[in-house]
Prior knowledge:
By secondary structure, the protein is an alpha/beta fold. Helix content is 35%, strand content 25%.
Amino acid sequence: MLEIDRFFNTLIKEKGSDLHLEEGQKPKMRVHGKLVEIGNEALTREKMISLLSPIPPKEDWRAFVTRGDLDFTYAFEHEARFRANYFRHFYGLGAVFRLIPSKIRSIEELDLPPRIKDFAKWRTGIVLVTGPTGSGKSTTLAAIIDYINTNYSQKIITIEEPVEFAHPNKKSIISHREVGKDTATFASGLRTAIKSDTNIILVGEMRDRETMELALTASEMGILVFATLHTNSAAKTIDRIIDTFPPNRKNQIRTILSNSLKAIIAQQLLPSVDKTRRYAAYEILIRNQALANIIQTGETVRLTSEIQTNRGQGMILMDDSLMELVKAGKVTKEDAFLKAIEKTKFI
């Protein structure tokens, strides 16, 4: 048993999501969105080394000592897996361990909008799941991939850093590729995946222009692409992609995106009123005839009214989703205000 295991046991027992260890600070864990101390003493350099060094392979630890950052997954006995991030900061060493649930939760268990099941029927295009770090993007994508895996015979490739949810093969064939081990970058992984007779590609994160362009290219070639971005609304997601490219290419990218974009799910997590769990708020945009024109003309300000008009088709604005949670007594108006886009609605 490793020295750090007692922290993992506490995190699992208290139903926390993240373990934070930083030199000069007391250990902390995040429970239902709130950071809670779980130790009485600040961590020294010696303690950090004794906690962190035994977990990754020796060559990875040596690489961290040289480079100053490291991402990997760690299997904690048979109880859980963690996504680990080691880093250096001003006062020394640090690490964050995010708990990856051992069981992939279904669309129903996550209480995701039922319309999301229709995404599994699509055979081409790009679907974006967006939100800040820790908003549950990976969990939502895992539920969608699991639904496809359970109900359809498809070839699915995931490209992640690191691989989080390990899907067993059901009706589909799933190949997991980890950036840094199985492929050098997201872009190189995408290039290979496009040539691999695949039906679906999941891109863990679209970080740069090259990855975005390859994801769009894959969707044009008849592949269904799922990917994530760190944006909090449909309009900002579209603008973020377009703005990544230089002026002389924006019109070309608008055309490709207008033809390829199938849906955007923007999500955020809020603590419940009694602080015992968290609820998700969503903004959902689904392709319709007007969307292509909005993207082509760059008039993303029109998306708000377009989503409102098509509420019956499964679309919803983030602020409307937040208000539903408030009215249902699930979250406080104060917490909704912090996440809202048009904050005056929550004053």
